[in-house]
Amino acid sequence: LSSATRDLMAGHTVLFLSPQFPPHFANFIVGLRKEGCVAIAIGDTPYHSISQVLKDNLTEYYEINTLENYEPVYRAVAHLIHKHGRISWVQSHNEHWLVLESRIRQDFNIKGGYVPSEIVEYRKKSVMKEMFRSAGLRVAQGAVLSSVDQVLAFVHSGAKPLGYPIVVKPDTGVGAVDTFKLNSDEDVRHFFETTFKLRPQPYIFEEYIHGELMTFDGLTDRKGELLFYGSFLYDKGVMDTVLDASGMYYYIRPALADDLEKAGKSLVRAFKVRGHFFHFEFFRTPKGELVPLEVNLRLPGGNTIDMYNYAFDYDFYQLWADVVAEKEDKLEAWRAKFKATPKANYFVCYSGRKYGQPYQHAHESLLSRCSSGSPQGKDVQMVMNMEILPLFRSAMGDYAYIFRTTDEEALLQMNKDIH
Description:
Helix 2 links the parallel strand 1 and strand 2 (38-43). The strands form four sheets. This protein has a five-stranded antiparallel β-sheet with strand order 11-12-15-17-16, with helices on both faces. It has a four-stranded parallel β-sheet with strand order 3-2-1-4, sandwiched between helices. It has a four-stranded antiparallel β-sheet with strand order 5-8-6-7, sandwiched between helices. The chain is globular and about 65 Å long. Helices cover 38% and strands 22% of the residues. Helix 2 (26-34) crosses helix 14. The chain has 18 helices and 17 strands. The termini are far apart. By secondary structure, it is α+β, with helices and mostly antiparallel strands.
């Protein structure tokens, strides 16, 4: 047997769900293959339409009509196990498939990750609030309500009435889908006459928190120990970007506030994050209070993982593959590196433009002012620029620029020129 064949036989068999979306997730498959894993996948995209990178690095791609129906998924997994042997890990890195992942783990006794009873509860924003309280964090007032009268009582009752604005969102939801800012009793009535009637489901109504929106993101090993963590700051929330149809930006900052790091680590423990990326969101109020918004048991959206790669000069696609493949020598090397230098090397910014807006600076002008190599001082390096997938445009803009610098002032000026 060749050394490559022996590596594959000795490695882990990893099942990836819907590996073709978004396209950059193919890098996870490349990382698995590098570590000698047998990377197999189930998806609903025709084989001829998946990328060449996936074709070159997957051992098998099993095509089904839809992943929304569990019966064909179950049959596909059974077939793959019969053909390739026991599966040691299942993943999608996609919020939409977290429950499906957990069901496969439970039904086929696959270790590493959440089971249905955990993931169904952890995705509920009402349950998140209880977890936040148990971690000793300040929590925005909120409740799952199902009628106009209940909401009006929530807003107007009590010794200190909450008042408007309030926010309503699905108790279990992704991003800013069906999320609204309500400013009056009339808005509440309109919500129940429209959105609630069209898509009846549990909705949580919450106090509107004024402040900066920031994150605590990272990856843990199989034991739940942190391998890396970082944070980025939004110029506005995703909900506000969608509602006002404007461009947006957010950027990674090398330094984390002590209370943000402490709160983030407490939630990693509370939600038992093991061998997974995570993405926690917090508000910083004008008084300096830190208020948790929500927990996402996945990596941050869009190309944020690429931004962290550029911030730390590291390959976090590969680091995740090292976790799955249990490459302890490589993980130890990374732990030592991160312990010695836990801060990112660069500020990295995502700046999204909307088509049809009268921007002052043309695309070519923006690119021409950037350095070609690693930036020094006030230099700015454009590391990526691309059109955004249609599904993400309402939240992320139509066209994106990702750039890095060692100088925060230079970053903010570049972003100002983009907008």
